[in-house]
Amino acid sequence: MIGYVTLGTNDLAGSAPFYDAIAAEMGLGRMMETDQFIAWGAATGGAGIGLTLPFDGQPATVGNGVMVALEAKDRAQVDRLHAIALEQGGSCEGLPGPRGETFYAAYFRDRDGNKLNAFVMG
Q1: What is the pLDDT of residues 22-42, one digit of tens each?
Q2: What CATH number is attached to the domain comprising 10?
């Protein structure tokens, strides 16, 4: 259902390596890029994530209650994505682990404070 999600940044060049590393772990790369915007995903389409300097020129802010969920292929990838996020300057919002019987997830924020998680069902 979701085509792509865009998150704001105040430092596109400084924040891009965070998403380069996350995308590489997921087997994806940059699919579009301008001096204001970078998108990661498959060139053939499907869900993607974009990082942008705000169009209105105002500082990027974090949406309260907003979170982007990245579907991992297995629990080990959830663990790796969490570790990569922290290595790239992100912060921990919840260590990898089970949440209930059929949901395994880890929560983290990027350098701008945008909240993400990596998860797998089962």
Answers
A1: 999 999 999 999 999 999 999
A2: 3.10.180.10
